[in-house]
Design brief:
This protein has 134 residues and is mainly alpha-helical. The chain contains six helices and no strands.
Length: 134
């Protein structure tokens, strides 16, 4: 019963990550299409950046929840039951995170989120168009 909370939080983080990514994408597209700050480029860029940070936090939350499920051997979750066991060395238990399709997709999302944060920091003047494409 207590183990179900981490799954519920993980599900909530997945929904937040998806919705915030959509809003950030829309904001960056609007920012990239705006010709000048008077047309709202600054507003859309700030909104998109805020939602991308929310997206980054939610992705980290999903990663934490999945690692928590795997490392604590909550076998009531299919992912932990299918990919890990108590007899595996800790290195294999950690790497079981990306063993199935869902985990490898989550790993790609994590690296894309990290790259997005790097792009936000390094492409200040071109942030809107670059992040809209990214």
């Amino acid at each position: 019963m207590y183990h179900l909370a981490v799954g519920k939080f993980g599900h909530l983080f997945v929904i937040i990550a998806f919705v915030s990514a959509l809003v950030a994408t829309f904001g960056y597209v609007k920012s990239g299409l705006s010709a000048s700050p008077e047309e709202g480029r600054g507003y859309w860029k700030k909104t998109a950046r805020t939602f991308f940070f929310i997206h980054a936090g939610a992705v980290l939350g999903v990663v934490f929840c999945l690692y928590w499920i795997i490392l604590n051997h909550y076998f009531e979750y299919n992912y932990a039951w299918s990919n890990s066991s108590r007899s595996m060395p800790i290195g294999y238990v950690i790497s079981s995170f990306w063993q199935n399709q869902e985990g490898s997709f989550l790993l790609w999302i994590f690296w894309n989120m990290l790259l997005g944060l790097i792009l936000i920091v390094t492409t200040r003047s071109w942030e809107g168009p670059v992040m809209a494409v990214f």
